[in-house]
Specification:
40% strand; 3-stranded antiparallel sheet; Ubiquitin-like (UB roll); alpha+beta; 2 helices; 65 residues
Amino acid sequence: MKNYYITIMSIDPDDHYGREQGDDHQKYGLSIQANNKKDAEEKGAEKFNELHPGLPIFWLKAEED
């Protein structure tokens, strides 16, 4: 198992001013242990959905830590 850092672009549900201006995007970061990059991306998306149910994932990037 290797350590990966996952960066996820989503929205900030509490950024009402940003939503009014048309940009309520927010980056989130997670640390994940996985066998490879693809596994890390899948685990990262799953973990994000557990932590922030209902928030969309616009893109996700996994980098070995």
